[in-house]
Write a structure and sequence with these properties.
Layout lengths: L1 H9 L35 H17 L2 E3 L6 E6 L7 E4 L2 H4 L12 H9 L3 E6 L11 H6 L2 E3 L2 E5 L9 H12 L7 E4 L2 E6 L2 H17 L10 E4 L2 E3 L2 E4 L2 E4 L1 H8 L7 H12 L8 H4 L1 H6 L13 H15 L4 E2 L7 E7 L3 E9 L5 E10 L9 H15 L1 H4 L3 E6 L3 H7 L5 H9 L4 E6 L64 H8 L13 E7 L2 E7 L6 E2 L2 H9 L5 E8 L5 E11 L2 E3 L9 E3 L3 E6 L10 E2 L7 E2 L9 H13 L15 E2 L18 H16 L3 E3 L6 E7 L5 E5 L2 H6 L10 H9 L17 E2 L9 E3 L2 E5 L1
Parallel strand pairs: 2-5, 14-17, 17-18, 21-26, 29-33, 31-34
Antiparallel strand pairs: 1-6, 2-3, 4-8, 4-9, 5-6, 7-8, 10-11, 11-12, 12-13, 14-15, 15-16, 19-20, 22-23, 23-26, 24-25, 27-28, 30-35, 31-32, 34-35
Length: about 800
């Protein structure tokens, strides 16, 4: 504790009840209309005027406002809340209507609470009048002027009620704590410092206090909590690896009166819904309350039924039990447990500790729609798994996890995706995830209560009943010796008698001897398929230009009496040239083996087709280029290279002459600029997507690279599109911007794209060909200055735009 006292004494000037004045950001206001807005002052009571005068005098003394005049004027009002001091605010509604929206991502509350709850030592700092510590520009002072019944004033600091104030304050926190994300999380004027050891916590506190002192900000001492093991943060009690709802907030839920109107129901669901991740099946329990909100009247009276009263009391009772959630550990495997009933679906995300205890991280739930209620049991169980995995993408993306269910729907889903389009969509949606499914035998072992719609299973034995297997619409096997239908050679009386074990067809089928043709250029694969719920093996077409048959297959076909016709074939090479090779042509009867385990076999005969075979793979001549290092192009010799030594020297000299064309970086092309025509549409803004720690690190590196190369720059823009990371085939990630909303309001331009067939035809007729690939071609086209703000994108690190 002595070190903590010394640290606080060292930075004592940072603690004050009076607001500081930062030098990091300045609040600027840009308007979309030149028409000034003016509103006369509101009439107030004598008591309210006295309170307002005292507050005006205090703000004048602190240098927050000054007496002045302006052609823009907004009225001041007094907001009174029971149990709190009256707070003067300015009614900026008309001004906000003509202010250009500036977008900066607000922090995610859930992410910050989880990070802080995992720490052992926590310090919470609260800035003194945080908004008043940001200066207003001269232009903004003119626009933000306000009036009272006893004078007009101009604010010098950022005022409450301005449209873009939260975004500017979030930007201040981002710049103040840039690079400290591992141990500091801000949310508006609250700053939480968290550490796992005492030594590291003291160092982290000093680092943050140094930043605050350098930024000329001040901290309110009475609202700070230093080096606590459990502390209140954003409505939660966090610390020591777990979190629980704040008692004050829970008390507000418990004291909420019985709703009489739809507005009151929405208010209750808003307060209780803030803690819905603590309550299992929250949406299912609250279903009667949400159903009461249906109807055209938004503020009318409701019909308070017994179901509504039970749901109202049950939600309160869930919070009385003081539920606890634990902080996630991304180094351990996650467990997703799901359940579905007739009313809705629920899920819980858990993890096992080193002692083998299963701790809940959060609960999810969803009320079934009218369409979903008509799903069968398997569809409901599948829907609950898909819902849970999609909602838990932040935790599960890039990690292997376990899915536990009592119905085992995904096994059924994987086998029957072709029979139901809905199952096919769900199966495709789960393909990017790495998980395994386990059939949970008992619900009592999990945190999900038993609310299944399944009836108890009877243990009485049922008498056996012999069922005759009938086959319909099947093509019987024919004897390959004499052609008689329905029998094999060992049972054919017209053929020479043989034992079944010596039957060539039986032996071949039972051994599953598939001939494989090895060819690096044209691989042939055998895949398993299902035909009428019967497993089968087929040879897949890999788009090879020719197939290479081995000597074994060639002699086998010759023994069967097949005749081969010798021909020549022109093969088109990758470089556009053609080559002649000898082939053998024959007609082969393709048959599909439906079942190898039954005593009887059935075949599906196809029409006779002609297939080409070659005795050996032909030598293909090509000139290859390799790229062992980025930005370096080298040539190597390959069999059949037609370039002579003088030709290669001429190419090398040409490449050396234009060596700068192959260097990274450089200026964008001067031939064209990218324009984005949105006509008169209002700007569109979408909040950033939540990313897990591993994806954040990748995104941070990519953002830094684009900044260093001058492709993007930090900005303030009314437009905002979210960032996503797309994994490439080589395992690396590519940053992509989801411009879906922007594209909807953008006028499409047209320009003829070249036809692929024409390009290939031209390449085929030329004796020499070289291919060039532009490095990040889109990044070499400059965006017009007027449209750069439209390309703005948001991520957890700020707002950026393309240049």
């Amino acid at each position: 504790m002595d070190r903590l006292r010394e640290l606080l004494s060292k930075y004592s000037k940072c603690f004050s009840n009076n607001p500081g004045l930062t030098n990091l950001v300045e609040h600027e206001i840009q308007l979309v209309s030149d028409q000034p807005v003016r509103t006369k002052p509101y009439r107030m009571s004598h008591r309210q005027n006295e309170i307002l005068k005292n507050e005006i005098n205090r703000m004048l003394k602190l240098g927050i406002i000054e007496v002045g005049e302006s052609d823009y004027m907004s009225p001041m009002i007094l907001v009174e809340v029971a149990g709190k001091e009256p707070r003067p605010c300015i009614d900026y509604r008309k001004l906000n209507g003509i202010i250009r929206t500036e977008y900066f991502p607000l922090p995610n509350i859930e992410e910050r609470v989880e990070k802080v709850s995992a720490a052992k030592f926590i310090t919470v700092l609260d800035l003194s009048k945080g908004y008043w510590q940001i200066p207003l520009s001269k232009t903004a002072q003119r626009y933000a002027a306000f009036c009272t019944s006893f004078g007009t004033y101009r604010p010098l600091r950022m005022s409450f009620g301005l449209k873009n104030a939260p975004y500017f304050f979030s930007k201040l926190m981002a710049e103040l704590l840039n690079g400290l994300e591992d141990f500091v999380v801000p949310y508006l004027d609250d700053i939480a410092i968290f550490s796992d050891t005492w030594e590291s916590h003291i160092k982290h506190m000093e680092t943050v206090l140094q930043r605050i002192k350098r930024a000329k900000l001040t901290i309110k001492p009475s609202k700070c909590k230093f080096a606590q093991q459990n502390v209140k943060f954003l409505g939660h009690i966090v610390g020591q690896g777990f979190r629980t709802p704040s008692e004050i907030k829970v008390q507000a839920v418990l004291e909420f009166p019985t709703p009489c109107t739809k507005t009151q129901i929405r208010a209750f669901l808003g307060i209780a819904g803030y803690y819905q991740k603590y309550i299992n099946l929250f949406s299912v329990i609250a279903a009667p309350l949400t159903d009461a909100l249906k109807g055209r009247a938004k503020k009318g009276e409701i019909k308070w039924t017994t179901e509504c009263e039970n749901a109202f009391r049950e939600l309160k009772g869930k919070l009385i039990d003081k539920p606890v959630l634990y902080a996630p550990n991304f180094e351990r495997e996650f467990i997703v447990q799901t359940d579905a009933s007739n009313a809705g679906m629920g899920a819980v995300l858990t993890q096992l500790t080193e002692q083998g205890e299963e701790h809940p991280i959060l609960y999810l739930s969803k009320k079934f729609s009218e369409v979903e209620k008509r799903y069968c049991t398997t569809e409901k169980e599948c829907a609950s798994i898909v819902f849970a995995i999609k909602r838990l993408h932040y935790y599960l993306d890039g990690n292997s996890f376990l899915v536990m269910t009592d119905h085992n729907p995904l096994v059924w889903l994987n086998r029957n995706v072709s029979s139901n389009p809905r199952f096919m969509r769900w199966a495709l949606a789960l393909q990017p995830y790495n998980f395994r499914i386990v059939h949970r035998q008992s619900r009592r072992e999990t945190g999900i209560p038993s609310n299944s719609r399944r009836n108890p299973i009877s243990k009485e034995r049922i008498p056996e009943k012999k069922i005759v297997d009938t086959k319909e619409d099947r093509t019987p096997v024919s004897c390959y010796g004499c052609g008689a239908p329905g029998i094999i050679r060992s049972r054919c009386h017209t053929c020479n008698p043989v034992q079944q074990k010596d039957d060539a067809l039986s032996s071949s089928l039972n051994q599953s001897n598939f001939y494989s043709f090895s060819s690096e250029r044209n691989p042939i694969s055998i895949i398993q398929i299902s035909i009428c719920n019967t497993e089968a093996a087929v040879c897949a077409d890999t788009s090879a230009t020719h197939s290479v048959a081995g000597e074994k297959l060639y002699h086998l076909l010759k023994q069967k009496g097949l005749n081969f016709e010798e021909k020549t074939m022109q093969i088109t090479l990758a470089d556009g040239r053609t080559q002649t090779t000898e082939i053998l042509t024959t007609s082969v009867d393709i048959r599909i083996v439906l079942d190898l385990q039954r005593k009887q076999w059935y075949f599906t005969e196809t029409s006779h087709r002609k297939y080409n075979f070659v005795k050996a793979p032909p030598n293909i001549n090509a000139l290859l280029t390799v790229d062992p290092e980025p930005h370096v192009c080298q040539f190597r010799k390959n069999e059949g290279t037609h370039l002579s030594l003088p030709q290669r020297e001429e190419i090398n000299s040409l490449l050396e002459k234009y060596e700068e064309c192959f260097q990274p970086g450089g200026e964008p092309t001067p031939f064209i600029e990218h324009r984005i025509n949105t006509r008169n549409h209002l700007p569109v803004a979408v909040p950033p997507y939540r990313m897990n720690p591993s994806k954040k690190e990748i995104l941070k590196q990519e953002i830094d690279r684009l900044l260093s190369e001058g492709i993007i720059k930090e900005c303030e823009s009314p437009y905002a599109s979210p960032v996503v990371l797309i994994q490439k085939p080589n395992g690396t990630f590519r940053i992509c911007i989801k411009y879906r909303k922007l594209n909807e309001i953008t006028v499409a331009d047209t320009y003829p794209l070249p036809r692929m067939y024409d390009l290939l035809h031209q390449a085929k007729l030329t004796p020499f060909m070289s291919t060039l690939d532009l490095r990040a071609g889109y990044d070499q086209v400059k965006v017009h200055v007027e449209d750069q703000d439209k390309t703005a994108f948001v991520c957890p690190f700020g707002t950026y735009r393309f240049l």
